[in-house]
Design a protein that fits this description.
By secondary structure, this protein is α+β, with helices and mostly antiparallel strands. It has six helices and 13 strands. The protein starts with a strand and ends with a helix.
Length: 221
């Protein structure tokens, strides 16, 4: 299989990017396409009103989950693979969470299930978890159009193609897409990563100066 783009540059006017993935297929087998982005921690929290104040009372930190998870398949994955393989490979949104280590300040498992569902819904709403159509052409070729949203983070994105026969993965091929910041955006990003303290101070100073300038302008109106 191959990709229309193996490198995506994020510039200041980046509004997302569509990538076409295509390759050979065999009508005897099912085909699964999975794209996973760099891993990151995601925090969900709940605030409750206590003595008139809104306080964070519950939270979960999902550790090392894919920042992006795109899936496409020639048939429903849960019908062509056994659950243990799906969990091991992280091939469904709901099953992916089962492999994730979490830090939380409450124990009730029924509540955790609701939080897991909220996480998946949130990622889907942001366009970060999405199921795409895998088009089969003349029983010889497959094609999928994938869209990386503007909120895509820089890093290495793994693209995997699986061929499935009799509920077993018989072939796997992997490639990658590199997404990186360029221009002034990249310089600011690198500065923030390498010198976070200085970046924070400059951000505060910029906010103060902007506020003073705005206040002065309004007084003159």
């Amino acid at each position: 299989f191959d990709l229309s783009d193996q490198e995506i540059n994020i510039e200041t006017d980046f509004n997302g990017k569509e990538v076409i993935i295509f390759g050979l297929t065999d009508p005897s087998f099912d085909t699964i396409l999975v794209i996973k982005g760099p891993k990151k921690n995601v925090k969900l929290s709940m605030k409750e009103r206590i003595f008139g104040f809104w306080l964070e009372t519950k939270k979960i930190i999902y550790q090392d989950i894919p920042s992006i998870l795109f899936i496409a398949s020639s048939a429903p994955i849960d019908q062509i693979l056994n659950e243990d393989v799906i969990i091991k490979k992280g091939l469904l949104f709901e099953k992916l969470i089962l492999n994730v280590i979490t830090k939380r300040n409450f124990i009730n498992q029924s509540q955790v299930d609701n939080w897991d569902a909220n996480l998946i819904r949130m990622q889907k709403n942001k366009g970060l978890y999405h199921k795409y159509e895998l088009k089969i052409v003349d029983e010889k070729l497959f094609q999928t159009r994938i869209f990386f949203p503007s909120s895509t983070i820089p890093g290495l994105y793994n693209v995997s193609i699986f061929q499935v026969d009799n509920k077993k993965i018989i072939n796997e091929k992997n490639k990658s897409i590199i997404i990186k910041k360029t221009g002034i955006g990249d310089k600011i990003y690198q500065f923030a990563q390498k010198q976070p303290a200085s970046y924070g101070i400059l951000s505060i100073l910029f906010a103060v100066i902007s506020g003073l300038a705005a206040a002065t302008a309004f007084r003159r109106l």
